[in-house]
Structures are given as C-alpha cells and as structure tokens.
Amino acid sequence: MATSPMLDTGFGVDKLTYEIFSILEAKFLFGYDDPKLLVSGKPENPLDTLTGDLKSLKNAAGKVRILSIDGAGATDGILAAKSLAHLEAFLRRKSGNADSRIADYFDVAAGSGVGGILAALLFTRGKEGRPIFSADEALQFLVENRRKLSPSSPSGIFRRLFCPSKAEKLFRRTFGESTLKDTLKPVLIPCFDLSTRAPFLFSRADALETDGYDFKMREVCIATSADPSLVGAVEMKSIDQRTRIMAVDGGIAMNNPTAAAITHVLNNKQEFPFCDGVEDLFVVSLGNGESDSGCRNVTPSSAEFVRIAGEGASDMVDQAVSMAFGPSRASNYVRIQATGFDAGKHPKSSDGKHFMGIAEKMLTQKNVESILFRGKKIIENTNSEKLDWCAGELIKEHERRKTSLFPTVMIKQVSPRTSSATVSTESSC
Fold first, then answer.
1. For the segment 7-52, what is each residue's pLDDT rounded down to a tens digit?
2. Is the Cβ–Cβ distance between 192 and 247 less than 8 Å?
3. What is the DSSP secondary structure assignment for residue 336, as one 8-state letter?
4. Is the separation of the CB atoms in 201 and 188 below 8 Å?
5. Residue 116 maps to which CATH number?
6. How far is Cα 344 from Cα 116, in angstroms, rounded to an integer?
7. What is the pTM (predicted TM-score) of this model?
8. What is the DSSP string of 145-213?
9. Among 2, 107, 166, 353, which residue carries the largest CB count within 10 Å?
10. Is residue 21 included in any domain, yes or no?
11. Is the pLDDT of residue 289 over 50?
12. Is the CB of residue 67 less than 8 Å from the CB of residue 260?
C-alpha cells in the first residue's frame, strides 16, 4: 500500500491512520461482538457503522480556534486590546500558568487595520519561540503610540496621523526583520491594493509556499494602516521583490475580517484536515466600539461617511457569520462589540488612558448577539463575562488536545536550516 505523504512528517498522524484501520479490522474482518450493534438480531449496516465511527473520530479532533480583530472603530483599537488583555489575564488565572499568551489558545488570527497590528504583536515569534508581546503589553503599545495610530478628527475612522517615517521607525524597532513566516500561527492581515483595485490578504500560509507572498511584518503593519487621505498608497514589495502592491488601509477592504478567517480555515485542508464546517470552529470576533452620535447633518462629511461605512460593514459581516453558524452560533461564535461612544465628546487631544477608561466601561456593557432573521438582542452577560466564558472554552479545548490522539491542526513550520515548510502538530495545544 502506498504511504500517505502526511505519514512522512513524523508528527503522530500515523496514530490516526492506525486508529481508523483498527476500527475497520474490528468491525469487518472479525465480525461484531458488541450486542449494542445488533438490531432485531441482525447486525447494523456496515456503512452506517463506519459513518458513525468516522464521525466519532472527527468529533475527537476538537474545534479550530479563530481570533478576529476589527479595524480601528470608535476607540482606536483600545477596546479590542483591552478585551484581549482581560481574556489573557483570565486564561492565566484559570489555567494556573502565569506565562500563558493569547497565541497559545488560538490556531488562527485575523486582524484589519489596528486589529492587524494587534494580531502581529501577539503572534509574531520572539525570544525562545514565544510571542514578542503579551496582551497587556500590546494594550500599552496602543496607548503609548496612539498619536501615531489615531484618527486625525474625532469622527473619522481611517484618518490617522500616520507619518511614514515615524511609523517605519516604530514598527522597525518592534518587529526588526521578522516576516510573515515568523508568526507562530496562521495570520491573516488585509489591505487594499490600488494597483489591482482589489483586497490583498497577507497570509502566513501563502508566505510559506513562496517568498513571493512573504513580507516583512513591519511593512504589513504599515500597509494595513496606511491612510490614503494622508500618505496615499504605500508601495510594498515581497521578500524576493517579485510581488508589488500599492497598499492602503485594510479597513477599506474588510474592517471585520471574520469571514475571511473562516473561509481560510475551511479551505486549508493541509493545516486543518478535520474542519469541514462552522460546527468545527470556535470563533471570537472583537469589535472596537461603535459611536452613538450618528449622522446628524443632512449632508454628512466624507469622514462621517467612512465611519458609517466601516461600522456598517462590520455589522453586516457579523450578521452573515451569525446566520452561517445557525443553531451552533451560541456555542461556537462570540462577538464582542460595544456602543455609546460619542465622538464629539472626545477630542483628538484626549490621551490613550482616557480611551482605555472608555474601553473598560464598554466591557461592562451587556453583550449583544445577532439573531437569525431578527437583528440583535441584548443578553444577560456583560462583554467581560462573555470573555470569561470564552476563556473557559479555550482552556477546555487546550486541555483536551494534550491527551487526544487526533491532531486538530497541523501547522506548517519553517525549518531553520533549509527554510522549507514542514508540518507540525506541536502548535495544536
């Protein structure tokens, strides 16, 4: 019998093959000894039994955990960063591991705009193979550097005071020469490519396939945050110089990247072999606050239109994803979003600590869930309580994988000597 290429990786996939063939051997070659398999004195249909066994094997593989972070929103990314700091702190207390990081508990991270910066900070490999930033450090990064990343007017989501030279120095100091290949898990960060008039998705999986899709992390962060009204398009080139894009803000392409992350996982069978539908996912989607000031002018400004478009697009994605999950949305999909931020009351001179106070208050708001064909409803749990529940689910999956014979994910890794991609199950926990 020909050997499957996956068996050559040496990472335990042969255990799964052994288990499947053991079932076939026990059920078909040596007959049925289990009385539960008999119905009216006759054995069940072998195909039905095999289907049930394979379904049990699939269930044993667990769920793929996805983190998605919106673009700037009303709080300049601080709400999402505060949510992540809260989640990581709870994970540490609940697990008993003081060094737990967000990257330990998610298999995929997607982020747009400032959400992409957060994903890069939390999932780029640093010293000793650990993430370069904890969630609390990433929150402080946004607070301390808000003037470089914040809107230039209170109501404009995408108008950021982003001086290219200062941004380059900031991200160069933070990420050094790290590229997409140096992220710990699959990372997806969008921008809009003016040269093709289409969204462009920076993807770790693509980077491992060819240097033509590998970019330096500092440039990825600049690309997903580039404000076209201030700096115009930013030219980006891949590591091998073959791919060239003219990038502007990722929020223009997809302010809420949740759908892109789900699509990536469902179509990436090499890294997620058992994931066939949304029931095999656990998704945490983080918003960055919505303003309640609305559009009060008969003829709103371009900045107000951009804000409305960004918030509306995020809500549409939330609704669509909620509909896709259907009956499993309550257990498999969590959206953290908040309202009540009046941009007119918070001038651009407000410091990051002021916005962090706003984010803390937003976490105490009641959580809002999208309901199939019924819009949204407020539930009893607050956003912070919902995050605590998420932490519990993440820890359950984390602990389950420690004793499971079946790899939930098979994350591609880069060999430091050959720079060739290999498949590893080490990151599945």
1. 333 344 455 545 554 544 444 444 444 444 434 444 455 444 444 5
2. yes
3. E
4. yes
5. 3.40.1090.10
6. 26
7. 0.80
8. THHHHSBSSTT-SS-B---HHHHHHHHHHHHTT-BGGGBSS-EEEEEEETTTTEEEEEEHHHHHH-GGG
9. 107
10. no
11. yes
12. no
Phi, psi of 191 (to 5 degrees): -145, 180
> Which helix (H) or strand (E) is 139 found in, with range?
helix 135-144
- Rounded Cα gap, residues 122 and 24, in angstroms: 43
Provide the number of structural domains found in the chain.
1
**Which residues make Cβ contacts (< 8 Å) with residue 320, sequence separation at least 6?**
259
C-alpha to C-alpha distance for 226 and 238, rounded to whole angstroms: 17
3-state secondary structure of 72: coil
102-137 in b/e form (b: 16+ CB < 10 A) is bbbbbbbbbbbbbbbbbbbbbbbbeeeeebbbbbee
Residues 6+ apart with CB under 8 A from 140: none
Task: Out of 112, 134, 150, 291, pick the active-site residue.
Answer: 112
Domain that holds residue 173: 61-286
Residue at 14 is within a domain = no
Find all residues with CB under 8 Å of 211, minimum gap 6, and list them.
Answer: 238, 239, 240, 242
Residue 89 lies in a domain: yes
Q: Is residue 398 part of a domain?
A: no
Helix, coil or strand: residue 274: coil
Is 112 considered catalytic here? yes
Structure confidence at residue 250 (pLDDT):
75
Q: Which of these, 262, 281, 270, 327, lies nearest to 61 by C-alpha position?
A: 281
Find tokens 């509909």 and name the residue.
323
Tokens (6 digits) for 277: 């539908």
Quick one: pLDDT band at residue 59, thresholds 50, 70, 90?
A: low
